[in-house]
Amino acid sequence: MFSKQRIQEFIKGRWEWFKRWWGPLPLVGHLVHCTGKNHIDTLKEFSATFVFSSATFWLTAIFLLAFKPNVPADYFRLVYTTMSTGQLFIFAVGMLGPILFIALDEPANAKKFPGRISHVIFLVLLSAMAAGFYSLELAARNPAHKFLQILNTDFLFFASVFVAVVVLILRYLTTVYRKNISGFNVEEAMKEQANDFAGSFSARHKEQG
After folding, report:
1. Considering all CA atoms of the chain, what is the largest pairwise distance in Å, rounded to the nearest integer?
2. What is the model's pLDDT at position 200?
3. Is pLDDT at 173 greater than 90 in this prediction?
4. At residue 23, what are phi and psi to the nearest 5 degrees?
5. How far is CA 148 from each of CA 73, 83, 138, 144, rounded to the nearest angstrom?
6. pTM of the model
7. Cα torsion 188, 191, 197, 198: sign
8. How many CB atoms lie within 10 A of CB 119?
9. Cα gap 8→98, rounded to integer Å
10. What percentage of the chain reaches a pLDDT higher than 70?
11. How confident is the model at residue 187 (pLDDT cuts 50, 70, 90)?
């Protein structure tokens, strides 16, 4: 029969092991340091940003319902129509700017932004991908080029969804990281380090004993 204290020590030990394993991972490693409040605050901000940024898709589809030729079409089909010709690439690029600003900005009394280089490299790759694929979409829509016959439009749509989803995830990560590092408290950080050291020392002492 395990005591409550033994169970708590076991859980704490597993959590410390997880932090040591997960923490060094690029982009997502700092999540182990983010609190529940960081995520709640981020979800509030992120939800409002997403609703307004995606209005060109879901709101446009509502207006399209007013046209008689669209009567046979359902709402979600119209949503697909509003973002099936490369608009998601534009949406993704528009979301990248704030991510870059958050990653490179250094406000006073805040820790260094985690994984800054990884974020910047990822942003450059995503922006190049979005711009390149969108140029193919534009070329496909030009009847003079006849690119529509050789381009896989289904793949381009899948690529636009993939890029948009990755950008949204990156936007969420940068926002929650900013919430975490902006709420950095030196005294609390020192206490946390002291508690971690004491816990590690106690664990090693028990193993040796």
Report:
1. 81
2. 55
3. yes
4. -55, -45
5. 24, 17, 10, 10
6. 0.77
7. negative
8. 22
9. 41
10. 83
11. very low
> Residue 165 is encoded by which pair of tokens?
């989803």
Contact status, residue 108 vs residue 95, Cβ threshold 8 Å: no
* Closest by Cα among 115, 105, 151 to 25: 115
Q: How far apart are CA 112 and CA 121, in angstroms?
A: 17
d(CA 204, CA 192) in angstroms, rounded, equals: 18
Residue 128 structure tokens: 């190049």
Are 27 and 119 in contact, with CB atoms under 8 Å apart? Answer: yes
Residue type, 178: R
Instruction: Please state, in angstroms and rounded to a whole number, the distance separating the CA atoms of residues 176 and 181.
Output: 9
b/e map 187-206, b = 16+ CB within 10 Å:
eeeeeeeeeeeeeeeeeeee
> How many CB atoms are located within 10 Å of the residue 168 CB?
18
Task: Report pLDDT digits (tens) over 88-97.
Answer: 999 999 898 8
Query: Residue 45, class by beta-carbon neighbours within 10 Å (0-12 exposed, 13-18 middle, 19+ buried)?
Result: middle
Nearest to 200 by CA among 37, 44, 13, 69: 13
User: What mean pLDDT comes out for the span 39-63?
Assistant: 93
**Cα gap 180→111, rounded to integer Å:** 9
The closest alpha carbon to 177, from 1, 31, 15, belongs to 31
> Do 65 and 75 form a contact (C-beta atoms < 8 A)?
yes
